Amino acid sequence: MGHLTLDQLLDILRDCAGEDESVDLTGDVLHTSFLDLGYDSLAMLQATGRIERNLGVALPDDVVAEAETPYQLLAVVNATRPAQAAA
Asked: Which of 5, 30, 51, 66 is the most buried (most CB within 10 A)?
């Protein structure tokens, strides 16, 4: 996994915190806030940890607080280079 897509992000969110039945994640959710999608800060911490492990990246500590929408989180994650293994 080298580049995170919206579908992959939504799968990670579902795995970490489930899915609010009142929210349609199949619609245009790219610019919808995570809170409106039913994901609180704990869910985002869990999802961010999973993203870091899956992609082998170290995300800035404040990424969860600053990324309020899937679009913003994807931009940060996909701009982050994988951690280099120590030689």
From this structure: 51
